[in-house]
Structure to design on (732 residues):
């Protein structure tokens, strides 16, 4: 037992002390914050390059003209279609919207420009035109628009979670996002840390240090020490990421919130609208949503399923590492490991999301090889406690099984040099006596 | 010290060791000889409890081999290796602690050995920054740092330059004088002839010969002598001996003879001295290599 702790310590500290670990630990939260800041900045700025659209209206329906929005501005044009087209050819910043005369019964309106108009520009135009058209058609049908507006109902549903502790706001959207993010994180980290285990074993095997070490400890101790040590590295990294991200996010949102207030005060009226739109934009939404997620529920489950899945798969990675002598030889053995992971990943985001309570989803979240990812996706939709418990128990049984399987291959594999190995060979190793 | 009794080790279709029994005395330097693939490494791995035999047993100091013996054995594998990116001091500490030393003990022992080898300044170096010969020195220290009673060296001199090979040889002999039992495993028979008290020859998974080096050599002596002389020998024919080879050059004349049963080298000298000036007479003792080849051929 003492020796296994020595091994865990070595595996852990030799990785945590590496520069690449520090870089990853700080870079990832920075990237998350950076992305968050970028979205924020873009939403405030709107556009330096707002297209000015000239509107040729032959139908005469849109006399009021189009309203200027943050994505585009509009101006009525007196040019004929031919002249306007000529202008577009000469001027690369020109946008011309052509509304033909016979539009009353629906039809196509054309936009001419050298640069392709963005989706937001097109959708602004579409919604404005349709609105005005609708108003006109209502009027034509003898319905008073003002009356209609008055009787427009304004109901909204707010979801409140009711438990013994009282009621609170919940945002199923945020819970879902966190669940999905957790599933993706588990998917990626199973690979990242599993491959670290495999590489570590290949390194020990090719450098032959393994023979010195296993003359002192049992191969099983060495394998488990490595798996546990690297698992702790992963856990450390996650905890650092979570604390750093949350910390930075709080600081960043404070700064940005203050900055935005200043900006609103100083901005010219033209941009006022744009700024006002973004005050409830991504920034506040994210923070509000994060506050509604039940972290004390999700976090422990995430960690249990990460660790369980990691132990299960890294044992298999360890077996592969012991059988080969270089990274390039690993491919044929990797397939049976990556296949179930990839399958679950694809199923999770195509099927489970839409049918979280179907029996297939249930089984995917119960079977140990698929549960670490599938359960995370199902979690936001509500999973009964007994299912969670069953899944966790099976996951533990699963990693005990794979560890046993892997250790039987490992003990033979690490001492086999210079041999091309097949699956049949692995089977033989498995059957070897001590 | 070490009794290897009727060991059998079977891999799938290949029998690596077939009923091998060897006795190794305490304080001896023992040579485990045999060509590549004979089964030496399999046997060593069994002694190190890396693998277990299918049949037979091994006793260390009269006790059946068990995990408590790990700290009493030091093993230098044929395939050398260290963690390339780890600092040497840390690495030595790690390996010594795995052998069961406390951290404080390990530190002082490592210091002692580093000083002895004159490599104190290497403590914070990484293995990948050392030359191959330097790495071997470090690995040798890792083998003996826990003061093992039994030291097993698999092809110890491969990769050493002559200076370091001599240095390591001296260290090994010193450890032996202090009471450690040494097992050399090698396919280069000549390299251990001078060092070993006893040997065992393994060939094709079987032990084909073992015993004290002197006894074995005596067994394989066949009364062959080399004689150098000056002068002219008219008639070399004699009932005393048969001539294997006759040679003449500027330095003088040489004879290789086999003395017939019932006579000794003194009889030959008596026969020659009246006739010529004898400058040299030496017995040609078969080398381990010759003995080995002779055995393998049979």
């Amino acid at each position: 037992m003492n020796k296994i702790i020595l091994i865990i310590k070595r595996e852990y500290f030799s990785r945590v002390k590496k520069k690449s670990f520090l870089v990853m630990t700080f870079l990832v939260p920075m990237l998350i914050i950076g992305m968050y800041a970028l979205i924020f900045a873009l939403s405030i700025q709107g556009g330096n390059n707002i297209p000015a659209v000239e509107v040729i209206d032959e139908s005469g329906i849109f006399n009021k003209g189009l309203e200027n929005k943050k994505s585009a501005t509009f101006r009525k044009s007196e040019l004929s279609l031919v002249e306007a087209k000529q202008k577009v050819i000469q001027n690369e910043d020109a946008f011309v919207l052509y509304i033909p005369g016979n539009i009353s019964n629906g039809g196509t309106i054309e936009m001419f420009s050298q640069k392709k108009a963005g989706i937001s520009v097109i959708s602004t135009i579409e919604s404005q035109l349709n609105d005005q058209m609708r108003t006109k058609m209502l009027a034509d049908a003898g319905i008073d628009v003002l009356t209609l507006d008055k009787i427009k109902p304004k109901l909204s549903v707010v979801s409140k979670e009711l438990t013994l502790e009282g009621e609170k706001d919940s945002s199923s959207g945020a819970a879902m996002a966190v669940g999905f993010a957790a599933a993706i994180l588990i998917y990626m980290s199973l690979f990242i840390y599993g491959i670290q285990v495999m590489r570590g074993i290949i390194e020990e095997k090719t450098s032959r240090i393994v023979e010195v070490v296993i003359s002192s400890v049992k191969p099983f101790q060495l394998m488990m020490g490595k798996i546990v040590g690297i698992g702790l590295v992963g856990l450390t990294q996650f905890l650092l990421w979570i604390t750093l991200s949350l910390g930075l996010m709080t600081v960043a949102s404070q700064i940005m919130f203050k900055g935005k207030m200043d900006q609103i005060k100083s901005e010219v009226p033209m941009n006022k609208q744009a700024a006002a739109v973004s005050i409830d934009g991504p920034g506040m939404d994210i923070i509000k949503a994060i506050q509604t997620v039940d972290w004390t529920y999700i976090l422990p489950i995430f960690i249990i399923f990460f660790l369980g899945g990691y132990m299960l798969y890294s044992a298999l990675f360890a077996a592969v590492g012991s059988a080969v002598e270089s990274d390039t030889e690993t491919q044929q053995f990797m397939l049976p490991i990556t296949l179930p992971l990839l399958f679950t990943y694809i199923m999770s985001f195509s099927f489970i999301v839409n049918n979280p309570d179907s029996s297939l989803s249930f089984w995917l979240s119960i079977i140990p090889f698929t549960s670490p990812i599938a359960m995370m996706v199902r979690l936001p939709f509500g999973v009964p406690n007994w299912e969670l418990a069953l899944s966790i128990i099976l996951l533990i049984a699963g990693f005990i099984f794979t560890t046993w399987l892997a250790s039987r291959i490992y003990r033979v594999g690490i001492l086999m040099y210079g041999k091309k190995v097949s699956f049949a060979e692995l089977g033989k190793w498995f059957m070897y006596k001590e | 010290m070490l009794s290897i009794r009727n060991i059998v080790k079977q891999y799938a279709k290949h029998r690596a060791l077939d009923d091998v029994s060897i006795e190794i005395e305490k304080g001896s330097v023992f040579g485990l000889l045999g060509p590549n693939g004979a089964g030496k490494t399999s046997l060593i791995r069994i002694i190190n409890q890396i693998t277990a035999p299918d049949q037979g047993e091994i006793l260390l100091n009269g006790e059946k081999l068990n995990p408590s013996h790990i700290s009493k054995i030091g093993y230098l594998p044929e395939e050398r290796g260290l963690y390339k990116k780890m600092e040497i001091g840390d690495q030595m500490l790690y390996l010594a602690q795995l052998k069961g030393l406390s951290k404080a003990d390990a530190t002082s022992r490592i210091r002692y050995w580093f000083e002895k080898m004159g490599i104190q300044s290497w403590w914070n170096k990484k293995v990948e920054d050392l030359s191959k010969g330097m790495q071997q020195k470090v690995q040798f220290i890792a083998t003996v740092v826990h003061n093992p009673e039994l030291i097993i060296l698999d092809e110890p001199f491969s990769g050493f330059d002559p200076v370091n090979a001599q240095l390591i040889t001296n260290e090994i002999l010193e450890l032996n004088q202090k009471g450690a039992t040494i097992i050399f495993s090698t396919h280069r028979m000549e390299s251990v002839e001078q060092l070993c008290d006893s040997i065992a020859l393994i060939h094709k998974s079987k032990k084909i010969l073992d015993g004290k080096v002197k006894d074995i050599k005596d067994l394989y002596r066949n009364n062959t002598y080399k004689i150098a002389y000056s002068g002219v020998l008219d008639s070399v024919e004699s009932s005393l001996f048969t001539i294997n080879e006759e040679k003449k050059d500027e330095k003088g004349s040489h004879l290789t003879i086999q003395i017939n049963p019932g006579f000794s080298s003194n009889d030959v000298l008596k026969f020659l001295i009246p006739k010529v000036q004898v400058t040299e007479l030496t017995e040609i003792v078969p080398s381990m290599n010759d003995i080995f080849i002779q055995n393998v051929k049979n």
Summary: Chain B has a mean pLDDT of 87. The radius of gyration of chain B is 24 Å. The domain at 2-218 of chain B is CATH 3.40.50.300 (Rossmann fold). The longest strand of chain B covers residues 14-24.
